[in-house]
Specification:
By secondary structure, this protein is an alpha/beta fold. It has helices spanning 4-10, 55-60, 85-96, 115-128, 157-169, 181-185, 213-225, 248-253, 302-317, 322-330, 358-371, 390-401, 417-425, 439-449, 478-493; strands at residues 2-3, 24-25, 27-29, 39-42, 65-68, 79-81, 106-110, 133-136, 141-143, 146-148, 174-178, 196-199, 238-242, 258-263, 270-277, 282-287, 292-297, 340-341, 349-353, 376-380, 404-407, 433-435, 455-459, 466-469, 472-475. It has an eleven-stranded mixed beta sheet. It has a six-stranded mixed beta sheet with strand order 18-19-23-20-21-22, with helices on both faces. β9 and β10 (146-148) form a beta hairpin. The longest helix is centred in the middle third of the chain and has 16 residues, at 302-317. The protein binds adenosine-5'-triphosphate and magnesium ion. Residues 113-117, 138, 153, 178, 200-201, 303, 306-307, 338, 353-355, 359-360, 363-364, 462 line the site of adenosine-5'-triphosphate. The site of adenosine-5'-triphosphate (ATP) has 22 residues, from α4, α9 and α11.
Length: 494
């Protein structure tokens, strides 16, 4: 709890901004619907809504003061004006919760693909090592065994700092966090004291938000600047970078902390050799700075070797012995919706994968191609109100690697689903595809077509349990729909 005048001083507001009414602030809130009595309401000019329009509701719910960047026509409670509420919020949230990330071992993961996978692998490894973990990312936030739903991959600063505080109170040993480029650009993670920053790769995505790949690269780079310039012998900081990525030297130069590399094609501190990829798992020889051992795991695909290397490096530098890492990876359960095979006795394969960028779709399809004995069917769509330029590329990749592609809906949001599919269709040059706008029907049709040894890849939605059409969220789970389709098929065939 802080009082309003201390907050004003911390935000460098002049003496004139100090208030006679100096209420105690018991919480920070950016969502007017969630305001509780005693809260400071922060007006954020968001992507779709503007918090300044919801001041009345915030006050009705008990807000005792307002932080704003635009004029608020009220004189019945103190209003703090700043130039940029988003920026101010990260300063404020760090201060309000007493800089919790300084007391936490915080690992940030950035890059276009692999963030969720790496944070979950780290979770498995640390837990195997009997460490207490927390994670924040696309699927959920987890603190020890408690799971909390979150709206964005990287939540806004007040929720984030409050959660860090909770982690400190619960004596969490390591927090793994996906750091999206949006969050970096919007300053949501400003002030977070990262101990490790992991870079995976960069390929096309989010070009609706970042104007160019260069802007996107700059946003990702901020995580590495944020490792800071302080050296500490007890808890050294590390930049863990994919040596095989084209932007490797860019990220290497972005930090003054120790750089640790992982890779397959170049000499690296954590190197994978003799990689053997099969439909049931992967094995490789891990060579580290001072050791060598064989890793065997049920995780599938070369991209997962990269994810494992990143996780191995971070865990090992955090003090987990390689033998424990090896055992944890041997038992890995994988991540929901990431190359997840639908279980059952059917004689064809069905894989659910979150691939929603051209690069990740290509990785998943080439992996499937490397072991597929029959035909490959792909069910894929693209999200509405998001990067349009990737739509024809996704279709083109589908056509290149799949025997038949079914173009369908992802989360169309406010766009016409058929218009999104029409954008995708521009990438098609043959007739080895068809359109079924209803995602459930598309999945059923693909599974109907599959014969013995064929593989159906259902791409794009992974772990998601809803489909967003217009402004509404409908329950939808690729895994469940696929299971029903398999059941229907087996019933009708017997
Ligand atoms: N290292 C990798 N390189 C390329 N593709 C990958 C890699 N790891 C995972 N993928 C592919 O990308 C998809 C998304 O993986 P994951 O959820 O781990 O990425 P993410 O970075 O968290 O994505 P998002 O930004 O959407 O949260 C996977 O389903 C898989 O198809
Ligand atoms: Mg993610």
């Amino acid at each position: 709890m802080k009082n309003l005048n201390d907050i004003a001083k911390y935000l460098l507001l002049t003496n004139k901004s100090l208030f006679k009414q100096n209420p105690k602030i018991t919480g920070l809130q950016v969502d007017s619907r969630k305001v509780k009595p005693g809260d400071l309401f922060i007006c954020i000019s968001g992507y779709t809504v503007d918090g300044h329009d919801f001041v009345d509701q915030a006050i009705e719910n008990g807000a005792v003061a307002i932080l704003a960047e635009k004029d608020i026509n009220r004189d019945d409670l103190p209003i703090l004006y700043v130039k940029d509420t988003n920026q101010a919020l990260s300063f404020l949230a760090n201060y309000f919760y007493d800089f919790p990330s300084n007391k936490l071992h915080l690992i940030g993961v950035t890059g276009t693909n692999g963030k969720t996978s790496i944070t979950y692998l780290l979770d498995e490894i640390f837990r195997f090592n009997q460490d207490k973990t927390a994670l924040i990312g696309t699927i959920q936030m987890k603190i020890a065994d408690q799971v909390y739903p979150i709206a964005n991959t990287t939540p806004e600063a007040s929720f984030l700092q409050k959660s860090f505080k909770q982690m400190v109170d619960q004596e969490i040993d390591h927090c793994m966090m996906e750091v999206s480029s949006h969050a970096l650009e919007l300053g949501r993670v400003n002030g977070c004291d990262f101990d490790m920053a992991i870079y995976t790769n960069l390929s096309q995505d989010h070009l609706d938000f970042h104007q160019t790949m260069d802007d996107y690269l700059k946003a990702k780079t901020r995580l590495f600047h944020q490792l800071g310039n302080k050296y500490d012998s007890k808890q050294p900081k590390y930049a863990i970078i994919n040596r095989d990525d084209v932007y490797y030297s860019h990220f290497e130069q972005a930090t003054s902390q120790r750089v640790v590399t992982y890779g397959i094609n170049h000499e690296a501190d954590f190197l994978a050799k003799n990689i053997k990829l099969t439909a049931n798992g992967t094995s490789f020889i891990l060579q580290t700075m001072d050791d060598q051992l064989e890793i065997t795991t049920p995780l599938i695909g070369k991209f997962n070797v990269y994810n494992m290397l990143a996780a191995i490096a971070a865990a090992n530098l955090s003090g987990v012995p390689l033998t424990n890492i090896k055992s944890a990876l041997e038992q890995s359960k994988g991540v929901r919706g990431r190359f997840e095979a639908v279980k059952g006795t059917h004689d064809f394969g069905v894989i659910i994968d979150f691939a929603h960028t051209p690069d990740s779709l290509e990785n998943v399809l080439t992996t499937i191609r490397s072991f597929a004995q029959g035909k490959v069917y792909l069910v894929v769509g693209c999200g509405g109100d998001r990067d349009r330029s990737k739509r024809p590329l996704m279709a083109e990749i589908g056509e290149k690697y799949a025997d038949c592609t079914i173009l369908t809906s992802d989360n169309p949001r406010s766009e016409d689903p058929l218009a999104i599919i029409a954008d995708m269709e521009e990438g098609m040059t043959t007739d080895r595809y068809f359109i079924e706008v209803n995602r459930a029907k598309a999945i059923h049709q693909a599974i109907q077509l599959a014969n013995k040894n064929d593989i159906v890849l259902i791409a794009g939605k992974g772990h998601e349990t809803t489909q967003i059409i217009g402004n509404e969220k409908f329950p939808f789970d690729d895994y469940q729909v696929a299971q029903q389709a398999i059941d229907n098929k087996t019933c009708s065939e017997t």
